[in-house]
Structure formats: structure tokens, C-alpha cells
Amino acid sequence: MAPANTHQAKTQFGYRRHPDQDRPGPRPAAHAVVIVGAGPVGLSLAIDLAQRGQRVVLLDDADRIGEGSRAICFSKRSLEYWDRLGVGDRMVDKGVVWSVGRIFHGEQQLYQFNLLPEDGHKRPAFINLQQYYAEAYLVDRINELPEIDLRWRNKVTALEQRNDSALLTIETPEGAYRLNAQYVIACDGARSSLRQMVGAEFAGQVFEDQFLIADVKMTAEFPTERWFWFDPPFHAGRSALLHRQPNDVWRIDLQLNRYADPVVEKKPENVRPRIARMLGHDKFEFEWISLYKFQCRRMDRFIHGRVIFAGDSAHQVSPFGARGANSGLEDAENLSWKLDRVLRGKSPASLLESYHTERSAAADENIRESTRSTDFMAPNSHQEARLRKAVLSLAKETEFGKRMVNGGRLSVPCSYDSPLSSLDADAWRGGPSPGCSMLDAPVSTRAGEQIYLTDAFRNGGTDFTLLSFSNGAPIDAPDGIKGIRIGGEGGLADPSGLAAKRYAAEPGSAYLLRPDGYVAARFRHPTRSAIAAALARAEGLY
Amino acid sequence: MPLSTSSNFARPDDAFRAIVEAHRGLTEEQSADFDAALVLILANHIGDIDVLREAIGLARRRMIDDQQQQQQQQ
Q1: Which end of chain A is more exposed for a tag (fewer CB within 10 A), N or C?
Q2: In chain A, positions 366-385, which contact chain B (CB-CB < 8 Å)?
Q3: Ranges of Polar residues compositional bias (chain A) (predicted)?
Q4: Residue of A nearest to B34 (CA)
Q5: What is the chain B residue with the closest CA to A384?
Q6: How are beta strands A100-105 and A226-230 bridged, if at all?
Q7: Is residue A459 domain-resident?
Q8: Over the Cα atoms of chain A, what is R_g?
Q9: Number of domains in chain A
Q10: ipTM of predicted assembly, 2 dp
Q11: Which residues contact A22 (CB under 8 A, 6 or more apart)?
């Protein structure tokens, strides 16, 4: 059904003929990077690469932003990434901020959780935002970047791998043309046609239970929290989810049985009574209705010759945990700086292999977590159902039971067991270890302005950055590393002490951050040679 | 700490009896529900995933051994 999407965001775009299509002679136009698929992952990756100075061709087979809200939960990590891409404020201003979830069994609340129970972070645990808004804001940002050439209604129909490039055949409303790309990044979603073109399998688990997803528009007084029910009075024996989006739109997920007829169940006249039972009234309009069977699966290899897969094309998870779009965005930020370095000849092509290593391990973690959640919601056997019943019952009076109840484990940044990390040589108690994502903290500039560490990192230009805690002596860092200094003359102040605390820092401690904000190494007593060695490792130079 | 399989109760019969009596008067279905809850409670009390995995391994091995023996006797 058409989205009742009359809001300000532009979602329809026109096909435009490109000079590449009229290129004379037998040699097709050559480009460094061609991204296929203008969803959240492809759009974000294009912006990231463009901000690093790369020219990018971005192809999409449609001429509009996809219908329906689809992904709605964007994580703190994703917002921090979007801050770096210049769209964070817009997303957060439009989105609804939340951090609290409640789990109910029947009519009774079993427990509640807070995903960000502490202050001193620039971004909240999550925002909810319809995917079409996120995409529209990303497209607006792309229109500010002349490095990106976004071509709508350009559908890749064939792929030929060469030694040092890939040749794409692209179908348009005005006929086909060809492009040669040093690297093709396939961000073309779970049904990826590029995945088929490279002949890769997409193996994993299919869940038999079906889930009805409806976005309804209504004015309601529910708080901005994630509410999850097991066996609710309005939907006996199954699970349900209620979650707020902007513009008085509410996401409702209802578990159906595995034999439900999708065509029948999707009809608004059949969905309406179900939702009305849940809400206790029928004063709502449908924005979007969809019926899903979930799959958890991944490609064996994320890199196939000159084609690199990112987002749903490479890995697919069930939605309980907000691990789909968010993990795709983590793919983009992981890949972008590596690809940039390789294209500039600053790192060997083997650096890209660490993208596969790090992100396929992350995919495994996301698949494991979302499989467990889905299995808990839809037990596979009588005995599994029995164990779940025992957990839900124990949760009524025990803490351990509450913590075993799995209504979705929400996305947090993965930590990488990575060849790019240097192991700790010093003793650390706490703080992000190598392979973990940087932590945010409030700091102030010399002018007294309160900013956050993530701001300071972004302002540095998201290159390799040495975050150091002053002991008064200057740090002897290798050339070409950006610096963020906490304390000392000219450094940022840490009035709350949270930066030092979160990094378990002593005067003199330093963290080497990668361009994607991950910790590459950390030092109690940084020396030029130790930093240089860690840097070389993180750059894939040995 | 590995799984302890030496006898830990001063009076093992009391422990066995307590579990047997807890099942008295229950239907098959109720007994199974009861066992599920009891397993989860005890697993949490142990609180050590390696010990739990070892215990699962032992129970599974005994089950398979016993099945094979029964098949051989038939």
C-alpha cells in the first residue's frame, strides 16, 4: 500500500541520462568505486567515501525511496557515524529518542531495562525513525557532495570480473551501457542480484513462524519506550511489540502462526481487528502492513574478487534487536576508510581482507543474538516451549529469570578480534580494549564550550587519532596522526572526570583510534616507536 | 572449576528423595514443567557456563550410552 507520506522529505527522483551512456568507442567509462543500492548503507558509504575525497558512482534500480517504514531503530553507534557524515542532527531532531524497554507476560510487567542508564553521551541509546526519512536525509546530504554521482533507475544486469576491475552492464529506461569499476560495493539488500551474479550462496536458518508488521497512525498516550509482550491478553499465546515512531506512527509486530495465509492475513480488514484488540479502540489508520518470515543467514565471504558486499546483501538477521540496518552502517564505516587507503595506495589491498574478518565475525554475533531472540519468541519444539514457560514463570520472582527472558537483545557495537589491533602491553583495568569502539564523554574546549569526545574525533577529520591524557610532557607521536589531548596546556578539559574514568586513564595514557572510531592500541607510556608500530599494524602494513 | 562428580551430599539419599517427592502426584506434563524450572534454577546457582556445558555433556553421554545398551539387548 502507498505510504501516507505527504511529509516534507523528498522521496521521488528522476532518471537522468549520463554522459557515460553516450561514450564513443569500445571502452566503457572507468570509475574507482561503484556502489550498487541506494539504501541506508549504500548512501552512507557513498557520503563517507566522498568526504574522504573519493569520487563515487551510486546506482539504484528504483527512482524512489522505498515504501514503508521498514528499519526504524537506529543505534547510538549509527548516530555517531551519521554525525560524522553530517546528518546526525537532522536524524535526531526528527527521530524519537528512547532508551527504556519493558517486557510483559500476560498483563504483568516482568521487567524493564534502560539501554543507556548514564549521562555524558552526545547521542541517546536509540532513536526511532522511519527508514524513508533516514534515506531522504542521506540523499539531501549527497546532493551537497559533487563527488557523488547518484543515478536512479540504473539496474545492474551483468557483472564480469577482470583482474583489476569489474565490468558492469547497466540497464536504464534508455537502454543499456557499461561501466568499469576498480571496486564494486554491493549494498543491494537481502535479495541482492550482485550476490547471484558472483554465484555466492546465502545460507542460514529460516524461521517458520510469521510476523505481521503494521505501522499505524494514531494519537496515543503510550510513553516513548519499547514494549514487548509474551502471551498478551489481546493476542493469546504469541508475542507482540509496540514502538513509537515520529508523526504519531506506531510500529506493531504481532507473531502469527506458521500456517497463517500471508495474503489473507495482510488484508487491512483482517489486520484491523487484531490491532483494535491490542489498542482497545480502532481509531487508527494504516501506514504500512507487511508479513514476514525471518531468516538469519550470511555469505561465506564478503569479498568476491572486485565485488565487496555490505549490509543485508552480505548478512540478514531477524529484526528483534535492531541489528539489520545498524550492522549495515557499521559495515559501511568499517569499509570506507580501508577502501580509501587502498585506492590511494597508502595501504595494500590486503587491508580489505580485515573488512571481511571483522564484519563477518560481527555478522556471526548478530545472527547468534537475533537467532536466540527469535527462537525464544517462537520455540521450535514442545520442550523449548516448556523451558521458555519456566523462564517466564521464574522471571516473576527471580532476577536471573528476568535476565533470561529474551524479547530482543538490542544492538551494541561489536568488538573485533582483529589483525589490525595491537595487544595491550601494559596493565589496564577498564576502558575500551583494542578492537572495541571508542566511548563518548563530555569535555570542554579552551573557550569553555561543552562538546563531546565524539565531536572532537569528528572535528579531527576521522583519520587515525591519538587520544591522550596529559601528564604535562608533550607526546612524541609519528607524523600524520591527528591528536586529541585531554588536560594540560591547550588540551580539552575533563571537568566531570568522565573521559578519564571511561578510558581508565592515568596521566600519560594514550589511545590510538582508527578512522572508524575503534581502538587500535593503547599505551600507559606511549613512545614514538610503539605508536608507529601500532599504526603500521592498523594500516595493514604488516 | 571442573564439574564435580564426586559425592557432595553428606546424605545423598535425602537429596534423591527430595527430588522424587517433589514429583509425587504430578502428571507427566507437570513433572516435565517442574524439571525445566528446577534445571534453570540450579544452572543459575552454579553460574559457570563451562561447568554447565560439562554437566550437559555428561547427561547427554549417559543418555546415548543407555540407549545403545538397550538396543543391543533387544
Answers
A1: C
A2: 383
A3: 1-11
A4: A390
A5: B36
A6: parallel
A7: yes
A8: 24
A9: 2
A10: 0.95
A11: none
